[in-house]
Task: inverse folding
C-alpha cells in the first residue's frame, strides 16, 4: 500500500513545523493511516517507508541532502507520535522529485495547459527520459525562458517549499501465523503429539498463545490430545490442557467452549471406564482370593 502526501518545509530547510502551511492536517492524516496499518498488522509488523524528495530546481547534491533530511524529520515525528521502534519506520532521501514532476508534465500531453503547450510538455518528457544528469535537465529546461516561467508559476511553485513524501506501508510476513497454521494441520490430522512438540519448540509460538485466543485453543487441543495419545489422562498434562482451554474460552475463542465440552465428556467417560475397570479388577481379585481360600481349606 502506498500513499502520496505533501509535507511542507520552509525554503531550503529540513526542520518540520506542524503549524507551517497545511502540515497539521496532512500530518494528522499520515498518523491516522499509519496507526491503522500498524494495528491491523498485529504481530506481523508493518514497515512504514518515507521517501523524501526536494524540488527539481537547484544543485542535485544539495537537493539530495534536503530530501534525506526531510524524510528523517518526518520519520522522527511518526516514531514519536505512534511510539514505534526506530526499525519500523524507514526514511529514504531520493534527491529531486523528478518522478512527481514527470507525472505532472505527462498530464499535459497532448492538449497542454498551465501555460504550457502539448508540444512543450512532450519535449520535457523526452528531456527527462533521455538526459541522465539532473543538473543538465534543469539547465536545458531553464534555457527556454518562456517555458521555465510557466513552470515556475504553477508546477514548480509548490515543489520549492515541499518535502515531497511518498509513504509506503509493508506488512511483513507473519511467520508465527504460518507456523501455527502448520500446527493446526497436524491437529486436524490428529497428530497431537507432533503438534505439541512443534508448539513448544519455539518461544514465539507460546508467546502468541498467551495473547491470541485461537492460538491458545489450538495449544490446549494439542496438549489434551497428547495426553490421550500417551494415556496420561490422570496426569498434570491433561489438567494443564484443560486450564489452557478455559483461558482460551475467556479470551474469546470461537471454538474453545465446544472443545471444553468435548474434553469434559471424554474425561467423564474415561472416569466411568476406569472406575468400571477398577471394580472388575477388584472383583477378580476377590474371586481369586476366594478360590485360593477354598483351595487352602480342602
Result:
Amino acid at each position: 500500500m502506498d500513499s502520496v502526501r505533501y509535507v511542507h518545509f520552509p525554503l531550503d530547510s529540513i526542520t518540520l513545523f506542524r503549524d507551517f502551511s497545511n502540515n497539521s492536517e496532512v500530518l494528522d492524516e499520515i498518523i491516522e493511516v499509519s496507526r491503522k496499518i500498524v494495528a491491523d498488522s498485529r504481530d506481523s509488523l508493518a514497515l512504514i517507508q518515507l521517501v523524501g524528495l526536494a524540488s527539481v530546481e537547484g544543485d542535485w547534491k544539495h537537493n539530495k541532502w534536503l530530501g534525506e533530511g526531510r524524510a528523517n524529520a518526518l520519520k522522527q515525528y511518526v516514531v514519536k507520535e505512534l511510539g514505534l521502534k526506530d526499525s519500523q519506520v524507514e526514511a529514504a532521501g531520493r534527491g529531486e522529485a523528478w518522478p512527481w514532476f514527470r507525472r505532472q508534465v505527462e498530464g499535459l500531453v497532448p492538449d497542454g495547459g498551465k501555460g504550457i503547450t502539448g508540444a512543450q510538455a512532450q519535449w520535457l518528457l523526452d528531456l527527462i527520459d533521455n538526459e541522465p544528469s539532473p543538473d543538465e535537465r534543469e539547465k536545458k529546461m531553464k534555457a527556454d525562458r518562456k517555458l521555465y516561467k510557466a513552470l515556475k508559476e504553477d508546477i514548480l511553485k509548490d515543489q520549492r517549499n515541499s518535502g515531497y513524501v511518498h509513504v509506503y506501508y509493508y506488512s511483513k510476513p507473519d511467520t508465527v501465523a504460518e507456523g501455527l497454521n502448520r500446527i493446526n494441520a497436524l491437529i486436524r490430522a490428529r497428530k497431537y503429539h507432533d503438534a505439541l512438540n512443534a508448539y513448544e519448540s519455539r518461544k514465539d509460538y507460546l508467546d502468541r498463545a498467551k495473547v491470541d485466543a485461537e492460538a491458545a485453543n489450538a495449544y490446549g487441543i494439542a496438549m489434551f490430545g497428547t495426553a490421550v495419545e500417551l494415556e496420561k489422562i490422570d496426569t498434570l498434562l491433561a489438567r494443564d490442557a484443560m486450564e489452557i482451554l478455559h483461558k482460551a474460552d475467556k479470551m474469546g475463542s470461537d471454538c474453545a467452549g465446544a472443545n471444553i465440552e468435548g474434553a469434559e465428556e471424554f474425561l467423564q467417560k474415561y472416569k466411568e471406564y476406569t472406575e468400571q475397570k477398577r471394580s472388575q479388577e477388584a472383583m477378580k481379585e476377590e474371586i481369586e482370593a476366594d478360590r485360593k481360600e477354598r483351595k487352602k481349606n480342602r
Q: What stands out?
A: The two ends are 94 Å apart (CA to CA). The first helix runs from residue 23 to 41. Residues 3 and 131 are 28 Å apart (CA to CA). The chain has a mean pLDDT of 84.
